[in-house]
Design goal:
Elements lengths: L2 H4 L1 H29 L17 E6 L5 E5 L2 E5 L4 E4 L14 E7 L4 E6 L2 E6 L4 E2 L12 E7 L5 E8 L5 E8 L4 E8 L6 E5 L5 E5 L3 E5 L5 E5 L4 E3 L2 E3 L3 E4 L5 E4 L6 E5 L2 E7 L1 H4 L1
Antiparallel strand pairs: 1-2, 2-3, 3-4, 5-6, 6-7, 7-8, 9-10, 10-11, 11-12, 13-14, 14-15, 15-16, 17-18, 19-20, 20-21, 21-22
Protein backbone atom coordinates (compact mmCIF):
# COMPACT_ATOMS: atom_id res chain seq x y z
CA UNK A 1 0.00 0.00 0.00
CA UNK A 2 1.38 3.40 -1.00
CA UNK A 3 0.95 6.79 0.58
CA UNK A 4 -1.34 7.74 -2.33
CA UNK A 5 -3.77 4.99 -1.31
CA UNK A 6 -3.91 6.40 2.23
CA UNK A 7 -4.20 10.01 1.15
CA UNK A 8 -6.05 10.34 -2.23
CA UNK A 9 -5.85 14.18 -2.22
CA UNK A 10 -2.05 13.93 -2.30
CA UNK A 11 -2.31 11.68 -5.33
CA UNK A 12 -4.53 14.20 -7.07
CA UNK A 13 -2.19 17.11 -6.27
CA UNK A 14 0.83 15.20 -7.56
CA UNK A 15 -1.00 14.45 -10.82
CA UNK A 16 -1.93 18.11 -11.19
CA UNK A 17 1.66 19.18 -10.47
CA UNK A 18 3.05 16.71 -13.01
CA UNK A 19 0.50 17.93 -15.53
CA UNK A 20 1.48 21.57 -14.95
CA UNK A 21 5.19 20.77 -15.32
CA UNK A 22 4.56 18.90 -18.58
CA UNK A 23 2.43 21.77 -19.87
CA UNK A 24 5.23 24.26 -19.09
CA UNK A 25 7.85 22.07 -20.82
CA UNK A 26 5.69 21.57 -23.90
CA UNK A 27 4.84 25.29 -24.08
CA UNK A 28 8.49 26.32 -23.81
CA UNK A 29 9.51 23.77 -26.44
CA UNK A 30 6.79 25.00 -28.78
CA UNK A 31 7.85 28.62 -28.23
CA UNK A 32 11.50 27.84 -28.92
CA UNK A 33 10.54 25.85 -32.00
CA UNK A 34 8.43 28.73 -33.29
CA UNK A 35 11.27 31.20 -32.74
CA UNK A 36 13.80 29.04 -34.60
CA UNK A 37 11.58 27.77 -37.39
CA UNK A 38 12.23 28.85 -40.97
CA UNK A 39 9.26 30.52 -42.57
CA UNK A 40 8.97 30.28 -46.34
CA UNK A 41 6.78 32.73 -48.23
CA UNK A 42 5.80 31.82 -51.77
CA UNK A 43 5.61 34.65 -54.31
CA UNK A 44 3.77 33.89 -57.53
CA UNK A 45 1.93 35.75 -60.26
CA UNK A 46 -1.07 35.82 -57.91
CA UNK A 47 0.93 38.06 -55.57
CA UNK A 48 1.96 40.32 -58.47
CA UNK A 49 5.14 38.69 -59.82
CA UNK A 50 5.20 39.48 -63.53
CA UNK A 51 6.22 35.98 -64.69
CA UNK A 52 6.77 32.59 -63.08
CA UNK A 53 10.17 31.97 -64.71
CA UNK A 54 12.85 33.77 -62.62
CA UNK A 55 16.48 33.70 -63.79
CA UNK A 56 18.05 36.34 -61.53
CA UNK A 57 17.51 37.39 -57.89
CA UNK A 58 19.31 40.04 -55.85
CA UNK A 59 18.78 42.26 -52.80
CA UNK A 60 19.86 45.92 -52.65
CA UNK A 61 21.21 47.85 -49.66
CA UNK A 62 17.73 49.07 -48.72
CA UNK A 63 16.48 45.49 -48.47
CA UNK A 64 14.36 45.51 -51.63
CA UNK A 65 14.32 42.28 -53.64
CA UNK A 66 14.78 42.33 -57.41
CA UNK A 67 13.66 39.46 -59.64
CA UNK A 68 14.73 39.08 -63.26
CA UNK A 69 12.28 37.17 -65.44
CA UNK A 70 11.77 36.54 -69.14
CA UNK A 71 9.21 39.36 -69.10
CA UNK A 72 11.16 42.08 -67.34
CA UNK A 73 12.19 43.00 -63.79
CA UNK A 74 10.07 42.89 -60.64
CA UNK A 75 10.96 44.96 -57.56
CA UNK A 76 9.47 43.65 -54.31
CA UNK A 77 9.18 45.76 -51.14
CA UNK A 78 7.70 43.01 -48.97
CA UNK A 79 4.12 43.93 -49.83
CA UNK A 80 3.83 44.62 -53.55
CA UNK A 81 5.68 44.44 -56.84
CA UNK A 82 6.76 47.22 -59.19
CA UNK A 83 7.28 45.97 -62.74
CA UNK A 84 9.97 47.20 -65.14
CA UNK A 85 9.21 46.20 -68.72
CA UNK A 86 8.88 47.50 -72.27
CA UNK A 87 5.17 48.36 -72.07
CA UNK A 88 4.32 51.71 -73.59
CA UNK A 89 3.56 54.29 -70.92
CA UNK A 90 5.26 52.33 -68.15
CA UNK A 91 7.13 54.87 -65.95
CA UNK A 92 9.60 52.06 -65.20
CA UNK A 93 10.44 51.40 -68.82
CA UNK A 94 13.26 49.12 -69.99
CA UNK A 95 13.69 48.38 -73.71
CA UNK A 96 14.31 44.61 -73.40
CA UNK A 97 12.75 42.09 -71.05
CA UNK A 98 14.57 38.76 -71.21
CA UNK A 99 16.73 39.05 -68.09
CA UNK A 100 19.57 36.56 -67.68
CA UNK A 101 21.92 38.05 -65.04
CA UNK A 102 22.01 40.60 -62.20
CA UNK A 103 25.01 42.23 -60.53
CA UNK A 104 24.45 44.78 -57.75
CA UNK A 105 27.03 47.54 -57.25
CA UNK A 106 26.43 48.89 -53.77
CA UNK A 107 28.86 51.84 -53.98
CA UNK A 108 26.84 53.45 -56.77
CA UNK A 109 23.52 51.77 -55.91
CA UNK A 110 23.39 50.41 -59.45
CA UNK A 111 21.77 47.25 -60.72
CA UNK A 112 23.72 45.96 -63.72
CA UNK A 113 21.81 43.44 -65.78
CA UNK A 114 21.87 41.53 -69.04
CA UNK A 115 18.67 41.62 -71.11
CA UNK A 116 18.46 40.01 -74.55
CA UNK A 117 22.29 39.77 -74.56
CA UNK A 118 22.71 43.52 -74.00
CA UNK A 119 24.19 45.30 -70.98
CA UNK A 120 22.18 47.80 -68.93
CA UNK A 121 22.71 49.80 -65.73
CA UNK A 122 19.69 50.73 -63.60
CA UNK A 123 20.18 53.60 -61.12
CA UNK A 124 18.22 52.45 -58.07
CA UNK A 125 18.06 55.97 -56.62
CA UNK A 126 16.12 57.26 -59.63
CA UNK A 127 14.95 53.87 -60.95
CA UNK A 128 16.01 55.03 -64.42
CA UNK A 129 18.53 53.51 -66.82
CA UNK A 130 21.98 55.07 -66.91
CA UNK A 131 23.50 55.86 -70.30
CA UNK A 132 26.35 53.44 -70.93
CA UNK A 133 29.07 55.25 -72.87
CA UNK A 134 30.98 52.98 -75.24
CA UNK A 135 32.27 55.18 -78.10
CA UNK A 136 34.72 52.55 -79.34
CA UNK A 137 31.96 49.91 -79.59
CA UNK A 138 33.82 47.44 -77.40
CA UNK A 139 30.47 45.96 -76.33
CA UNK A 140 29.48 45.29 -79.94
CA UNK A 141 28.92 41.55 -79.43
CA UNK A 142 26.32 39.68 -77.44
CA UNK A 143 26.81 40.11 -73.70
CA UNK A 144 26.94 36.69 -72.01
CA UNK A 145 28.33 37.22 -68.51
CA UNK A 146 29.11 39.93 -65.96
CA UNK A 147 30.89 39.99 -62.59
CA UNK A 148 31.99 42.65 -60.10
CA UNK A 149 35.45 42.32 -58.56
CA UNK A 150 36.68 43.32 -55.10
CA UNK A 151 37.83 46.75 -56.30
CA UNK A 152 34.50 47.61 -57.96
CA UNK A 153 35.52 46.90 -61.55
CA UNK A 154 32.85 45.37 -63.76
CA UNK A 155 33.96 42.44 -65.93
CA UNK A 156 32.01 41.54 -69.05
CA UNK A 157 32.21 38.60 -71.45
CA UNK A 158 30.89 39.14 -74.97
CA UNK A 159 30.58 36.84 -77.96
CA UNK A 160 30.56 37.71 -81.65
CA UNK A 161 31.37 36.62 -85.20
CA UNK A 162 33.58 38.58 -87.56
CA UNK A 163 33.20 38.74 -91.35
CA UNK A 164 35.12 35.47 -91.74
CA UNK A 165 32.78 33.63 -89.38
CA UNK A 166 35.44 33.17 -86.75
CA UNK A 167 33.79 32.73 -83.38
CA UNK A 168 35.38 34.75 -80.58
CA UNK A 169 34.74 35.67 -77.00
CA UNK A 170 36.04 38.84 -75.38
CA UNK A 171 36.88 39.64 -71.78
CA UNK A 172 36.21 43.33 -71.09
CA UNK A 173 36.91 45.48 -68.02
CA UNK A 174 34.93 48.56 -66.98
CA UNK A 175 36.66 50.70 -64.33
CA UNK A 176 33.78 53.14 -63.88
CA UNK A 177 34.90 55.43 -66.67
CA UNK A 178 35.57 53.38 -69.80
CA UNK A 179 35.53 49.86 -71.21
CA UNK A 180 38.81 48.16 -72.07
CA UNK A 181 39.37 44.94 -73.99
CA UNK A 182 41.47 42.60 -71.85
CA UNK A 183 41.54 39.26 -73.67
CA UNK A 184 40.18 37.67 -76.85
CA UNK A 185 39.79 33.92 -77.34
CA UNK A 186 38.65 31.92 -80.34
CA UNK A 187 36.00 29.29 -79.78
CA UNK A 188 35.11 26.37 -82.04
CA UNK A 189 31.68 25.35 -80.81
CA UNK A 190 28.95 26.53 -78.45
CA UNK A 191 29.30 29.84 -76.63
CA UNK A 192 29.14 28.59 -73.04
CA UNK A 193 31.14 30.76 -70.66
CA UNK A 194 31.24 31.81 -67.03
CA UNK A 195 33.18 34.35 -65.00
CA UNK A 196 33.78 34.55 -61.26
CA UNK A 197 36.02 36.49 -58.87
CA UNK A 198 38.28 34.73 -56.38
CA UNK A 199 38.78 35.89 -52.79
CA UNK A 200 42.19 37.25 -53.87
CA UNK A 201 40.54 39.28 -56.66
CA UNK A 202 41.72 37.15 -59.57
CA UNK A 203 39.41 36.71 -62.54
CA UNK A 204 38.30 33.12 -63.13
CA UNK A 205 37.16 32.70 -66.73
CA UNK A 206 35.80 29.37 -67.94
CA UNK A 207 35.36 28.69 -71.68
CA UNK A 208 34.48 25.73 -73.88
CA UNK A 209 37.86 25.30 -75.60
CA UNK A 210 40.37 26.58 -73.07
CA UNK A 211 39.09 25.26 -69.75
CA UNK A 212 39.58 27.48 -66.69
CA UNK A 213 41.92 30.45 -66.55
CA UNK A 214 42.99 32.64 -63.65
CA UNK A 215 43.86 36.17 -64.79
CA UNK A 216 45.13 39.23 -62.95
CA UNK A 217 43.70 42.72 -63.36
CA UNK A 218 45.80 43.35 -66.48
CA UNK A 219 44.65 40.20 -68.22
CA UNK A 220 47.81 38.17 -67.69
CA UNK A 221 46.99 34.45 -67.49
CA UNK A 222 48.45 33.14 -64.23
CA UNK A 223 47.04 29.61 -64.43
CA UNK A 224 45.21 27.64 -67.09
CA UNK A 225 43.94 24.09 -66.82
CA UNK A 226 41.35 21.80 -68.39
CA UNK A 227 39.33 20.14 -65.62
CA UNK A 228 36.51 18.78 -67.74
CA UNK A 229 36.03 17.11 -71.13
CA UNK A 230 32.76 15.82 -72.55
CA UNK A 231 30.87 15.55 -75.80
CA UNK A 232 28.38 18.24 -76.77
CA UNK A 233 26.58 17.32 -79.99
CA UNK A 234 29.78 16.11 -81.62
CA UNK A 235 32.08 18.74 -80.09
CA UNK A 236 34.60 18.06 -77.34
CA UNK A 237 34.24 20.90 -74.85
CA UNK A 238 35.85 21.73 -71.49
CA UNK A 239 33.27 23.95 -69.82
CA UNK A 240 31.61 23.70 -66.42
CA UNK A 241 30.28 26.22 -63.91
CA UNK A 242 32.29 27.01 -60.78
CA UNK A 243 32.01 29.14 -57.67
CA UNK A 244 34.37 30.67 -55.07
CA UNK A 245 33.39 31.25 -51.45
CA UNK A 246 34.82 33.91 -49.09
CA UNK A 247 37.59 31.51 -48.01
CA UNK A 248 38.62 31.02 -51.66
CA UNK A 249 37.40 27.43 -51.82
CA UNK A 250 36.74 26.59 -55.46
CA UNK A 251 33.57 24.56 -56.04
CA UNK A 252 33.42 22.94 -59.47
CA UNK A 253 30.15 21.60 -60.92
CA UNK A 254 31.25 18.77 -63.19
CA UNK A 255 29.10 18.15 -66.26
CA UNK A 256 30.57 14.74 -67.07
CA UNK A 257 30.14 13.07 -63.68
CA UNK A 258 27.75 15.42 -61.89
CA UNK A 259 28.03 16.49 -58.27
CA UNK A 260 30.40 19.09 -56.82
CA UNK A 261 34.19 18.86 -56.55
CA UNK A 262 36.45 21.16 -54.54
CA UNK A 263 39.72 22.48 -55.99
CA UNK A 264 42.65 24.45 -54.63
CA UNK A 265 44.74 26.37 -57.18
CA UNK A 266 43.17 24.22 -59.92
CA UNK A 267 44.30 21.04 -58.17
CA UNK A 268 41.65 18.54 -57.07
CA UNK A 269 41.07 18.49 -53.30
CA UNK A 270 37.98 16.37 -52.63
CA UNK A 271 34.42 15.63 -53.73
CA UNK A 272 31.85 17.60 -51.77
CA UNK A 273 28.74 15.99 -53.25
CA UNK A 274 28.37 13.03 -55.55
CA UNK A 275 25.89 12.99 -58.43
CA UNK A 276 23.40 10.74 -56.63
CA UNK A 277 23.48 12.96 -53.53
CA UNK A 278 22.53 15.99 -55.59
CA UNK A 279 19.89 14.43 -57.80
Amino acid sequence: MSIFDLYPPIKLKVRVLIGCVLWVIISMASLLLAQNSIQVEKLTTQEGLNFRHVDAVIQDREGFMWFGTTQGIAKYDGNQFIIFDSSKGNPHFIPFEQISKFIYQETSNTLWFIANHKLFALNLDTEKLNIIKDPEKILAGEVLEIALDKTDNLWVVTDEFDSYKIKRQFLIKFDGNSFRLIKSLERKSTGFTSIDITATNLICWSTVNHGIMFLNQNGEILQNKILETYDWYGYKIHFAESFFDSKNSHYYFSESKGGVDVYKDLEFSHTLLKHKEVF
